[in-house]
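Two proteins follow. First one:
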Amino acid sequence: MKSGRAFWQRTHQIHTVLLVIAVFVAGFIIGSQIMVGEAAEQPREAAIGETDEAFEPFWEAFNAIQDLYIDKVEVPTLVDGAISGMIDALGDQYSGYMNPEIYPLFDADLSGDIEGIGVVIRTLEETGQIQVVNVLKGTPAMEAGVQPGDIFLEVDGESVIGLNQTELAARVRGPSGTTVNITFLRGEETYNVDIVRARIEIPNIETDILEGDIAYISMAEFNALAYGQLRDALEELDVNNRRALIFDLRGNPGGFLRTAIDIASGFIEEGIILTEEFGNGETQVFEATGNYFGIEVPIVVLVDERSASASELVAGAMQDRGVATLIGERTFGKGTVQT
């Protein structure tokens, strides 16, 4: 969780982010779905060294700011800054702090549907501006006339220049039925539009029957709805009456650990799916859940350098258990689980 803007910009650059503003920040994170509060309640050993003594400089700095700084700074602002700095000190690209404003966005994004306007975005590396790259069909953004190539300038009268995608999402998204006013740049002209937000199901599964009677399924992320979506897609394609199945995980950055286990179990009838090792030396073994799809035709899994986390878990398990052949490029190489 690297702190602040630099963390989010770096992670977005790594996996060529296309967020639905709507926006899903599914990141290449594979969450174990342990809530922050639950994690905090887990028993922990006393910190090495005298914690009170180690924190004396912190309290000195805190008190100095409270007593001497010319402007009043809210305590939560200082606490967020302190936590961000502490996490930043880990030097871990997969660790970062999400403040109370950002966390609900991340949590909602992996639920499979969100409340927003329905555009896919990216950050232009040359300018740092955030551009629309796709407008989802039937969404408020399409009805309002938003087009690919439009650049965000203002949201509800406030400039969004310099914001990262997550910060922009926090301003654009909101409860279904509410209105957001957005100013866009299109070419050399600006335009302003009111858009009524709506609940939008994030497109996650694409299917096709390819030449040679081969079933094709691509999955965008391992969100909370993915297992059911994949099961339904397999039934609609009548996979066992096709010659083969291609399961495309290229560009899939990951998602929930529980979803990854469920989906791997759909292809692996029994046995170990994953062994997770914790920092305290403990391990947890995840075995097939019994939610087997019963696929009898040959399976090929497609991967690339943007296939990360849950994608690597599922593809690796399928390869190791001999149920699929992997084709593509070396994957991202994450191999860690975050809570």
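Second one, unrelated to the first:
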Amino acid sequence: MPAHLHNSYCLQLYIGSSSNELVTNHLSSIPNIFVHDGAIGSSPNCDAKVRVISDSPSALLSLSNFLYKTRTRSVSHDSCPLTVYAATSISPLVVEAIGVGSQSNNGIIAADMERSSLVLCGKAFLDASAVKKTLFLLSEPVISARGGIPLPGRILVSGDSVIVLFAPEDTIQSCTNLLVSSNAGTILTSQSISPSFQTGNTGASNLFNLPTAFVLVSSDSSGGIPTVSKLSPGQAAYHFLAGYQNGKFVPSFSHGPSCIDPLELAKALLAKLRGNHVHSYLININRGKKTLAGKDFVKLVESTLSKDVLPFEAKGGDLERKYKAFLSAKYPELPKDFTF
């Protein structure tokens, strides 16, 4: 299952097991090893336990800052923990042997899906965003097996309302200071929702009640999508699966690799929407020559929950045909409950 992620540190993510033995051999030769146990997800019933093993206290501290705290020995007793090997002092020759070559001057992030492990070489631990994305990828099967739903959304809290946003990345980045967490990844359980990783306030659990609403954000310049509209559960699942962004489709609003098929994720979301009677809305942020963003975008989201919003009704049939052509080709066995 190959995947690549490039970022500011010129790191490369690939899926494979060749790195594990080389890095563990390196760590076993180091006299002082540092260990930290944590978790991805704030709910102890649906989290993924993580053990970090490093040759550097700096790398350990960096990861411990965003992993949730977990009970003593919970990782040792867990049936499927994730393991992070952070080798900051590893030889460049060993890094080259892993297979990335000249592209790995600053570090490597390598995920082994079969062994549920993550290898960080060199300065890779400094790129918290890339590390979080990869850890969330590794945690998806564990969280799903425990009854949680790993969603690529963000949480917005407004008064007593807990809102889950699925939006284009540039829209999210325009209002990160107003969100619970700027990182993609939330974990929905039968009783709560939380960011996948700890936020700046390390003393907070960030475990919230079930969402008040799910808000799907599209950018459509054709005029086919209203500014604000209410979705039925079947419509919400359909639009979530499509992830339509001004002519392009991004299934489940996920821009990176995932262990979970977007259709299965949409089915799980549909079941939650129906079972918990959660409202869903579709917002079109396109405003002609500009796009709604920042505080104005958040204000629109917050005001939507207090309005009597009309049900979704597209203008014209071109957009519906475009949706249908894409989804029927990519997902031939689309459930009948999924509707435009």
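SUMMARY FIELD: The chain has nine helices and 19 strands. The mean pLDDT is 88.
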